[in-house]
Amino acid sequence: MNHLEAYWRRFVNRADTYCVQQPPPDKYRRVRRALTLEDLAAHVAGEKTLALDCMNPEGEARWVCWDSDVVDGLADLARVQAAAMDLGLVTYREASRRGGHLWLWCDAPQPVAALHRLGKAVMHLADIKLEVYPNRDDPPRDVAQGMRLPLGIHQHSGQRYPFVDGAGRPCHRDDPESALAWLVAQPHTITSQLQAALATVPLLPPPRAPVSPSPLVVTPTPSLGGAAVTKGIIGWIRAQSFPDIVARTRSDVALMHVGRGYSGWCPLHDDAAPQADGTPGTRSLYIYCDPVYGWRWKCLSSNCGASQRPVKDAFDWLVWLSGGQWNVALRWAEALREESR
Ligand SMILES: [Zn+2]
């Protein structure tokens, strides 16, 4: 993979639309056309300046970006960076015309519910309030907020801004090739690190009330005998074909028939990565339909939190993908039911 392709993998959440920064006093113009590698090359070369959507239409994103617009914003971002580091997350500070950006890069697209929650939780730990992108925890209706890509030329100052180290010194030379080579060589965060961080951050108050005005009726699962009896949205999601739900929520799992169940790539840890001995990763998510209890899933890798008992059902799937946030999972389930109507 060349540097430009690696840059694409790091930043492009969707390639059917993007924004172009305009000379002052205008800001950005949205383009409804396919993004190409040539567009990214032109951005890095300083021929035009792109901003890319902070999530795709399915509500997934490859990065988190904290944005500070104030004059000493880089100092604020250093505090957020330190809080992220306490959670085991490596982030990168980019200078800008005023303030700057702090980036966290993921190895694979992640649900925005988890990334947005993590972004806010890190600021909570740093006791600081900035803009964070993805800036919402559910998919956009059309397009999402764009973020200016690093390494280009800011159209309002005519300057290119570097990534900076803890002392504020540039991390790379200022020619585009060196900057790009430096950027794509920086490690990204793997899914299991995100999961570990999400498991330790404090639960914040829910971002807003559930969309459904009617109270949810949830009957506890009986401890003995019979299928789980739940009404309302949780009952609905448990009654669906779980392979369909997996395909609709995380298509990258890519389920395949195996024996009496299905296997796929686990979205909760990095099972696609090569093993320590260099052998290829293996698909470790396993789902099956229990004749009494219905659809169940688990991860077969002992490296993964989802390998622990108890076995999990379709609603648990949404909870895990939402970083443990029940309210987010409930809204997600409502959205899935809405789509099915
Ligand atoms: Zn797993």
Description:
With 341 residues, the protein is α+β, with helices and mostly antiparallel strands. Helices cover 31% and strands 19% of the residues. The chain has 10 helices and 13 strands. It has helices at 3-11, 37-45, 73-86, 112-126, 176-185, 191-200, 232-239, 242-249, 314-321, 326-340, and strands at 18-21, 28-31, 50-53, 60-68, 92-95, 100-111, 131-133, 146-148, 163-164, 256-258, 261-264, 285-290, 294-299. The strands form 3 sheets. Strands 7-4-6-5-9 form a 5-stranded antiparallel sheet. Strands 2-1-3-8 form a 4-stranded antiparallel sheet, with helices on one face. A hairpin with a 2-residue loop joins strand 10 and strand 11. The longest helix is centred in the middle third of the chain and has 15 residues, at 112-126. The chain starts with a helix and ends with a helix. 40% of the residues are buried. Mean pLDDT is 86; it is low at 205-229. Zinc ion is lined by residues 266, 268-269, 271, 284, 299, 301, 304, 306.
Question: TL;DR?
Answer:
By secondary structure, the protein is an alpha+beta fold. It is 31% helix and 19% strand.
What descriptors fit this protein?
31% helix; four-stranded antiparallel β-sheet; alpha+beta; five-stranded antiparallel β-sheet; 341 residues; binds zinc ion; 13 strands
Q: Tally the helices.
A: 10
Helical residue percent band:
25-40%
Mean pLDDT: 86
Gross geometry: globular
Which sequence of SSEs, written as H and E, runs from N to C?
A: HEEHEEHEEHEEEHHHHEEEEHH
- Largest pleated sheet: 5 strands, antiparallel
Q: How many beta-strand runs?
A: 13
What is the first-to-last residue Cα distance?
A: 42 Å
Q: Uncertain spans, ≥5 residues at pLDDT below 50?
A: 205-229
Structural class by SSE content: alpha+beta
Percent in strands:
15-25%
Bound chemical compounds: zinc ion
